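Q: Hi! First time doing this. I have a protein sequence and I read that you can turn it into a structure. Is that right? Here it is:
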Amino acid sequence: MQTEEVGVAPSTAEDALLRLVMAVGRRFRTRADGDDVDPSQAALLYKLKYHGAMRLGDIAEAMKLDASTVSRHVQQLGDRGLIQRQPDPQDGRASIIALTADGLVSLKKTIDQRRSFISASLSEWSDVDRERLRTDLIRLTESLGDPA
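A: Yes, that's right. Below is the predicted 3D structure, encoded as structure tokens:
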């Protein structure tokens, strides 16, 4: 990314997207009042919601994280009853990590808090602009090859 002056609009779509990702990333990684889980743990809950129960190694691979980091999050979330370990039906020595009902509630609360921030940011946008943004973001997400 080229160095940009403060207050100067990005000159390319790529630079605009990088600026957006940085701004949203900072906001989403910041703990909000009433957060039940750390934002990085919420990402793990989100992955389980959309992909279903998974082995720890598969979670680490899907999230592009070190297995020790995922293991620590799994332990903390399990201690709080937000996920549970189940025996892997294909390998009795391994476990499958699954989201619990409490984990789903906690994730919903976290997502609702972040959605509220975005809704406020888009409150003055027209319905046409919001729909165009939705369509473009879906297309970009598909191009990135990362559905959830």
